[in-house]
Amino acid sequence: MSGQLSLAPEKRSGAPIDARRRRRTMVAVVSAMSLVAFGAVAQADDGEPDRDGPRAAAVGTTEPEGDAASESTPPADPPTGLGSDPDLDALAEQCFGGELAACDQLFLQSPSGSDYEAYGDTCGGRQEAGTETYCALGADIEGPVETPDPVDPTPPDGLGTDPALDDLAGECYVGDMDACDELYNSAEDESPYQIYGDTCAGRQRENTGRYCRDLENPVPGTGPIASTPVDTTPIDTGSVVTTSVDTVPVDTVSPDTVSPDTAVVVSVPDSEPSGGQIPPATEQPVGLGADPALDALAQGCFDGDMGACDELYNSSDPDTPYRAYGDTCAGRQPADTGTWCRDAFGGASSSTDVPSPTSPVTTATVPVPPVTLPPVTVPQLTVPPATVTVPAMPTVPTLPTVPTLPTGPTVPITLPGPTLPGTTLPGGVIPPPTLQPVGLGTDPALDALAQSCYDGDMAACDELFRLSDPVVSGPYRDFGDTCAGRQPTGTGRWCIDSFPAADVTVTLPGATVPGATVPGATVPGTLAPPGTGTVVISGIPPATQPPTGLGNDAQLNTLAQNCFDGGMQACDDLFLQSELGSPYHEYGDTCAGRQSSGTYTYCHVAFPTTEP
Question: Which of 54, 395, 398, 492 is most buried, most CB within 10 Å of its CB?
């Protein structure tokens, strides 16, 4: 299968990799060419066309001897004041002498925007600047040029040990023709890498002058690609100490300037950067695409790594946001300038000196002598002993001293107590408790009452309230007061009154008051006549309120009379059996006027008898 290849005489045509003249090389003369500018026609001996653009223009020409040159070549301007490069000065002299191919070589090899480039562009003053026409190359060729039939490519084995060029060669092999042309431009002259790129991985012969991207339907390579050999021989660099070091140029190193804190870095750049301060980026590396490797290059470009900008341009596809971002050096220069970011901004003030992607920097580090660090002594920490403050126990009140009675015969006195019949209380629904009987204290008896109260025994709640001390056993008392959380605190209502059980019969037995035994004396345990309010039992004060006008309940009236006569248990029974808030309830609560109402203290506790 064959195709057509047209050659255009434009001076700077071709792919973007050619517009940015990354590597300027001069190729040896491969065929005799005739001068074509200003009337001359150039054609190779073997009939094959030259490549247009910067790569084709690198082919040299020969100048006719004698008067032929002077008759066909117009006079030129002298090449004075162009610069101080001996190689470029030599090309300028050849251009001035009539070798128009040297003019083209001068244009291609000189720095962009230099006087050398302008001299070569005008063919030594023989044509206007900016014509985009070569002085001696790129003449019109009669008729179309046949391209070779597609052939299988040759794997890139044994080309060298440059990882970047190996990557380009691998991409060229699998069918990326732009990578073939980039490999040709980036490789050393006459190296296996350059020959591999020139032949488009074996798809065409050498020195055809054709760009690989112009091949029609190149056959992609499918075979395995050998990896770049890596030298794994260990290098004895001495002890490595991570520390801050001073970097000095190699031409200033001497035995006096090298110290254990000095690292000597030898850099061999491809071309001299323009230097100067790198301006800040004006475009953020966002929204460019979804390639992690290209995103990393874009971030490095934004951070001031001009080499990363150039590598991003080379590695990304044409007409993509990645390519445009690398082309503008992250917004530091306009698009399509044809100037590498490293050439435009150098990198002298950059925080990281990254070499150009196609011009690696060779770095040699002088080993740092072993450094002995002094031992570090960690002081022993002393933890002070913890101090625990034990709260003081509350003071137990001193009980009053019981007076000693005179010695007399011992006569026990027993006071019989009445047995009260059972009382039927109206029933209701007892709500569930809201407090758990835990953490109240360590009294087993009170804990048992608290559990019964929690389980729904309202009498147990009231008994817990009565038996618990308001100071020492406060949590028990509060638990009983709220009926295990069934009512608020301080209501003044017994739990059996607030939450009576359904038709529960409560039988309260009569209380028996034991007789008092006094050594050496006999104190009869008889009660005073009813209504007198005077008792002969020691320790109980006389009543201050007679049991009149309390109600019409005969049983409760009997308890009230006994309370008035000094039966403290009768007072408590009257308090428990009477309706809350009734005169009977109030009379029992005050122990027949012996204490104030609402003290929440049982009468037999408030006024105990002194008999043993």
Answer: 54
